[in-house]
Amino acid sequence: MTATTTTHPEASPPTRAASTPAAKPWLGRRARKVALIAHIIAAGAWIGIDVVLGVLVFTALLTSDTGTEALCYQALELFAVWPLIITGLAALVTGVVLGLGTRFGLIKWWWVFVKLVMNIILVFLVVFLLRPGIHDAAEYGSALADGKRLDLDISGLPFPPIVSGTALVFATVLSVVKPWGRLRKDRAAS
User: Fold this and answer.
1) Which residue has the higher pLDDT, 186 or 130?
2) Given its phi and psi angles, is residue 13 left (phi above 0), alpha (psi -120 to 50 degrees) or beta?
3) pTM of the model as a whole
4) What DSSP string runs through 10-40?
5) Which listed site, 62, 75, 113, 129, has its alpha carbon 20 to 30 Å from 189?
6) In 10 A of CB 189, how many CB atoms?
7) DSSP string of 60-87, one letter each residue
8) What are phi and psi of 109, to 5 degrees?
9) If pLDDT is split at 50, 70 and 90, which confidence band does 17 have?
10) Angle at Cα 120 formed by Cα 34 and Cα 153, nearest 5°?
């Protein structure tokens, strides 16, 4: 029978990783909860606006009533762009605050980094691709309301709510599952 010895953590000499203090998150428990709630609300609003955007786009494309089609296209300009930009930026700012102020960091974990990149890309797409297309759709809707049909290509309108909605659902799954581990291995561990 061999004797086993147990070592207590306080009895063993400190390693380099244990002797260097980890960066402590600067957000307190209450501030973290407030930031997290704001982040969840912003993301939820963003998803909701995307759903409404999809409803308006697909209603306009699938209806046989010209008045409904015109109204849906006109409503896109009033409803879609600025609320999407505001909620996208709110999710970005609260996400950055959470990343910098908690143990997750902005570039420590793959899932956080992927969400950050997706958020930046989606806001960029709203500003530079969706906004001009929405303006054309509203112009098309105004012409329809006046009984005219313009020669504007609005065939790409279904893609923004599909792409953005899918990306936001994926980001939500990432927030819950937290896959893929660390972005890079700690140097102290190697």
Assistant:
1) 130
2) beta
3) 0.81
4) TTSPPPHHHHSPPPPPSS-HHHHHHHHHHHH
5) 113
6) 9
7) HHH-S-HHHHHHHHHHHHHHTHHHHHHH
8) -120, 140
9) very low
10) 125
